[in-house]
Amino acid sequence: MLSKNRLRIAMQKSGRLSDGSRELLANCGVKINLHTQRLIAFAENMPIDILRVRDDDIPGLIMDGVVDLGIVGENVLEEELLSRRAKGEAPSYKMLRRLDFGGCRLSLASPVDTEFNGVKSLEGARIATSYPYILRDYLQKQGVTFKPCLLNGSVEVAPRAGLADLICDLVSSGATLEANGLKEVEVIYRSKACLVQREGEMSPERLALIDKLLTRIQGVIQARESKYIMMHAPKDKLNEIVALMPGAENPTLLPLAGDESRVALHMVSSENLFWETMEAIKALGASSILVLPIEKMME
Ligand SMILES: Nc1ncnc2c1ncn2[C@@H]1O[C@H](COP(=O)(O)OP(=O)(O)OP(=O)(O)O)[C@@H](O)[C@H]1O
Ligand SMILES: O=P(O)(O)OC[C@H]1O[C@H](OP(=O)(O)OP(=O)(O)O)[C@H](O)[C@@H]1O
Ligand SMILES: [Mg+2]
């Protein structure tokens, strides 16, 4: 039985978002044993219960106030929002933040051998999708009506099966489209995983716990996007070297024993350092360039 006093978080049980969701919570110091097939997991060190469900159910669980937080794709959240609005409901939730995984786009795709003459030419077309409301919202704004063909999975087979003229489905690398003889013709929605909170009353303790988690998530994501950079740099080229580093803060400079012309330079960069930048830094006379990952960060 779930306790009313513990924070409830819904995440995808198995699929594209489950590893990212589990890792994020683990990196935030939430200790959960998800190795078992249990659909409910209890954190050992914090008053948090995890509900492991189909991703499609997460927006509804948040909007109905069953869980306090959920980690879900923006695409699924938006579809549920539009679907409930179409039924005359007024669903609500709080978007706490976008996360750094689950990036994909919802796109229209047509068979490679057919010509695409723009969205306006789709009037009356049969389009297979699992996202009828997002698609309708997009096409309606362009004054286009279409015939939806609802499929919950394997949408890519619809044109070859003679069910539809085009599809509207999620794309990331584009490999699935290619394997099915389809080409992406229009992006209609860009999505990432996000952290969502239910509306409504919450105890001060629960709000404080959400706040703590959010601060930790910020630290985890910021650390993942940052690098610690160390090098030996010539003193007369310091400005040029620092200017090459993306998102650099003030560097720390330390003397190098037995070398008057160079210093040890340490700094945190808010982005990854590309090979090209490292080569340019080396060309300015720097050596022993190290780029290290950062585990945690707090400002
Ligand atoms: N190719 C992809 N690359 C990155 N993220 C993706 C990709 N496809 C989907 N996603 C994101 O991950 C979410 C979950 O995708 P997944 O394919 O695991 O869903 P599902 O098959 O509906 O799973 P479930 O069994 O939970 O209903 C999508 O709603 C989307 O936000
Ligand atoms: O552009 P790509 O990198 O090929 O990714 C796109 C595919 O990924 C998703 O399905 P997934 O593989 O998660 O399987 P599913 O159909 O079981 O949801 C999505 O529905 C596409 O089919
Ligand atoms: Mg699903």
TrEMBL record:
Pathway(s) the chain acts in: Amino-acid biosynthesis; L-histidine biosynthesis; L-histidine from 5-phospho-alpha-D-ribose 1-diphosphate: step 1/9
Activity control, per UniProt: Feedback inhibited by histidine.
Domain (ATP phosphoribosyltransferase catalytic) ranges: 54-219
Enzyme class: transferase
EC number: 2.4.2.17
Secretion signal, residue range per the UniProt entry: none
Keyword entries, A-Z: Amino-acid biosynthesis, ATP-binding, Cytoplasm, Glycosyltransferase, Histidine biosynthesis, Magnesium, Metal-binding, Nucleotide-binding, Transferase
The protein's required cofactors: Mg(2+)
Listed GO MF terms: ATP phosphoribosyltransferase activity
Record field: catalytic activity: 1-(5-phospho-beta-D-ribosyl)-ATP + diphosphate = 5-phospho-alpha-D-ribose 1-diphosphate + ATP
InterPro entries hit by this protein: ATP-PRT_HisG_long, ATP_PRibTrfase_cat, ATP_PRibTrfase_CS, ATP_PRibTrfase_HisG, HisG_C, N-reg_PII-like_a/b, N-reg_PII/ATP_PRibTrfase_C
PROSITE patterns the UniProt entry points to: ATP_P_PHORIBOSYLTR
Claim: Amino-acid biosynthesis is one of the keywords in the record: yes
Subcellular location: Cytoplasm
Occurrences of domain Histidine biosynthesis HisG C-terminal (ranges): 223-296
UniProt entry tagged with the keyword rRNA-binding: no
Coiled-coil intervals, chain numbering: none
Function of the molecule: Catalyzes the condensation of ATP and 5-phosphoribose 1-diphosphate to form N'-(5'-phosphoribosyl)-ATP (PR-ATP). Has a crucial role in the pathway because the rate of histidine biosynthesis seems to be controlled primarily by regulation of HisG enzymatic activity.
Family statement drawn from the similarity comment of this UniProt entry: Belongs to the ATP phosphoribosyltransferase family. Long subfamily.
Oligomer and partners: Equilibrium between an active dimeric form, an inactive hexameric form and higher aggregates. Interconversion between the various forms is largely reversible and is influenced by the natural substrates and inhibitors of the enzyme.
PANTHER family to which the protein is assigned, alphabetical: ATP PHOSPHORIBOSYLTRANSFERASE, ATP PHOSPHORIBOSYLTRANSFERASE ATP-PRTASE
Protein name per its UniProtKB record: ATP phosphoribosyltransferase
Protein source organism: Thorsellia kenyensis
High-level lineage: Bacteria, Pseudomonadati, Pseudomonadota, Gammaproteobacteria, Enterobacterales
